[in-house]
Write a structure and sequence with these properties.
The structure holds two protein chains of two kinds. Chain A is mostly helical. Chain A folds into two domains: 22-50, no CATH class; 54-264, MetI-like fold (Orthogonal Bundle), CATH 1.10.3720.10. In chain A, 78% of the residues lie in helices and 0% in strands. Chain A has helices at 2-10, 25-48, 56-69, 71-103, 105-119, 127-134, 138-162, 166-174, 179-215, 222-232, 235-264. In chain A, helix 3 (56-69) packs across helix 11 and helix 9 (179-215) runs antiparallel to helix 11 (235-264). Chain A starts with a helix and ends in a 10-residue tail after the last helix. Chain B has two domains: 1-35; 38-248, Orthogonal Bundle (MetI-like fold), CATH 1.10.3720.10. In chain B, 82% of the residues lie in helices and 0% in strands. Chain B has helices spanning 3-26, 38-50, 54-85, 87-99, 108-116, 120-144, 148-156, 161-198, 204-213, 217-248. The longest helix of chain B has 38 residues, at 161-198. Chain B is globular and about 70 Å long. The mean pLDDT of chain B is 89. Classes of the chains: A mainly alpha, B mainly alpha. Chains A and B meet through helix 1, helix 2, helix 5, helix 6 and helix 9 of A and helix 1, helix 4, helix 5, helix 8 and helix 9 of B.
Chain lengths: 274, 249
């Protein structure tokens, strides 16, 4: 998936120099795309009626009311705390495990297929185990979300560590760098791009884990409000929340993508890092 | 390092993990009510299999899975092909497609429940939505990765446009399209299980949540094992087919 993003960066349409970027029709179409979705949403709201589709304005209003009433702030706060807690766990565990497994060629060969296989399993149904272990509340949501997010971070860190160039390491050793210097000047910068890709994908999956866990047996959080709104058939609130979650995920992912692009801009492209 | 010792160690790790499922609960390292040794889950598992109660759930999950995967294949492959054919379209949508899996798509599931009601439709729609983009992306990549040499050979043989597509592009893109379909299948299954587990009235995912809320812990674990067993079987089969495709390509 990262490849496709790189391609956009590398193959700008026609000859759009830096100055004519705004005249590039693709660029304009990209900017118009969200507006087209918004227009489609509005049309569907009019055609299907507000029993099925709440209009964008009504949805926004529901969110603003939520801010006024205080529930939105409180529930978004719960979701955010669980997200930060779970993501920190995923990052620490994922980077440490991924780095250690990547250091040894043997450990990498043994564990890589296991980790990839675990990543592809439907792990949602294991949530009750986390409820047993951590009780109802934020801790179980965070550890469950960690269980989602840790695998991509392990995979990317592991392959990043495995692919640190042997030549660069030899150069470093011949310069008599200490272990710490070797890590700081050669190993870490070499791992960083794939690490950041792992952090980005891990964040998305962790966020998904938090929302899912709050949909099941929770008393607060945005996932809980979503499920509650179904029984109330509160369509503006449902659409508003989905919009909020989508925009939030989009914004964070965009920030990670910018970071990745800055890291890879000055490097020869490395294919095969997913 | 040889392949045999790698494989041996890998199996040792897996067996140790399974053994831990037996030993940890027996050693009393956790709550005896919630942590049940494997040897007490396995009989429950076979009881679940032989019990007629399982069949409607299995059919419901299987039906939703097959439907959503077929939908993802039928819509995803042509869309991927279109994206490859119309380069500006691909470049326009690229940033959105690459961001797609960062969005918690399951947030849309309650919305679909409110629209369609509690039946199989929201499950199928959300699983389709979860799976289709992987199919689209990989199909588009697959057609883009067709080696230039092959295209030139085709052109030098004066193949017509359709011949070029059917003799060169389609066969060359097959492994990539298969990778897309494989991901689509895996994602469909995850989508079905997740939506059933969170909120529904049928299916294997529902069976786990039902047994959890009714304190039937052993039955809950056996339903979990059934899900994991089916998923592992599916992944294993898909991966071995995929490996064969790339070897020939």
């Amino acid at each position: 998936m990262a490849d496709a993003a790189e391609q956009t960066a590398r193959t700008p349409g026609g000859e759009p120099g830096k100055t004519s970027a705004w005249q590039d029709p693709v660029r304009i179409a990209q900017l118009l795309f969200p507006l087209a979705l918004l227009a489609l949403w509005q049309i569907l709201a009019v055609v299907l009626g507000d029993f099925f589709v709440a209009s964008p304005l009504a949805s926004l209003n529901a969110l603003l009311e939520g801010v006024g009433d205080g529930w939105l702030g409180a529930d978004a706060g719960v979701t955010l705390v669980a997200l930060v807690y779970g993501y920190l766990l995923a990052v620490v565990l994922g980077v440490v495990i991924g780095f250690l497994l990547g250091l040894s060629r043997f450990a990498y060969a043994v564990f890589e297929p296991i980790v990839v296989a675990l990543y592809a399993l439907p792990k949602v149904a294991l949530y009750p185990i986390f409820l047993f272990a951590f009780g109802l509340g934020i801790a179980s949501q965070a550890w469950f979300a960690m269980f989602f997010g840790v695998f991509p971070i392990i995979i990317f860190t592991m392959s990043g560590t495995r692919n640190v160039s042997e030549v660069l390491l030899k150069v470093g050793r011949s310069l008599r760098l200490s272990r710490l210097q070797l890590f700081r000047t050669i190993v870490f910068p070499a791992i960083l791009p794939s690490l950041v890709a792992g952090l980005r994908i891990g964040f998305g999956v962790t966020f998904l884990g938090v929302v899912l866990s709050q949909m099941f047996a929770a008393r607060s959080g945005l996932g809980y409000v979503l499920v509650q709104s179904v029984s109330l058939h509160d369509m503006p609130r449902l659409y508003g929340l989905v919009l909020l979650l989508t925009l939030f995920a989009f914004a964070v992912n965009g920030a990670f993508l910018l970071w990745e692009r800055r890291l890879t801009r000055n490097r020869p492209s490395e294919k095969g890092a997913f | 390092m040889n392949a045999a010792s790698v494989r041996l160690t890998r199996w040792a790790v897996i067996i140790a993990a399974i053994a831990a499922l037996e030993i940890v609960p027996r050693a009393g390292l956790g709550d005896a009510i919630t942590l049940i040794p494997l040897s007490r889950i396995v009989p429950e598992f076979f009881e679940l299999l032989s019990d007629g109660e399982l069949i409607p759930h299995l059919l419901s999950t299987g039906g939703a899975f097959v439907l959503s995967f077929l939908l993802a294949g039928v819509t995803g492959v042509p869309l991927g092909y279109l994206l490859w054919r119309y380069e500006p379209l691909k470049r326009t949508l690229d940033p959105y497609l690459t961001t797609y899996y960062a969005i918690p798509i399951f947030a849309f599931y309650p919305l679909l429940l409110a629209i369609f009601g509690f039946n199989i439709l929201p499950v199928v729609v959300i699983s389709w939505a979860w799976a289709v983009v992987a199919v689209v992306l990989n199909t588009a990549i697959g057609f883009g990765e067709v080696p230039r040499v092959l295209i030139k050979v085709g052109q030098s043989m004066n193949l017509s446009r359709w011949q070029l597509l059917s003799r060169i592009f389609f066969p060359a893109a097959v492994p990539y399209v298969f990778t897309g379909l494989k991901l689509g299948m895996v994602y469909s299954l995850i989508g079905v299980i997740a939506s059933e587990f969170v909120l529904s009235t049928q299916g294997l995912g529902y069976l786990v949540s039902y047994n959890y809320t009714n304190f039937r812990t052993a039955a809950m674990y056996s339903a979990m094992f059934l899900i994991l067993f089916l998923a592992i079987l599916l992944n294993w089969a898909l991966n071995s087919i995929e490996r064969r495709l790339y070897e020939h390509g």
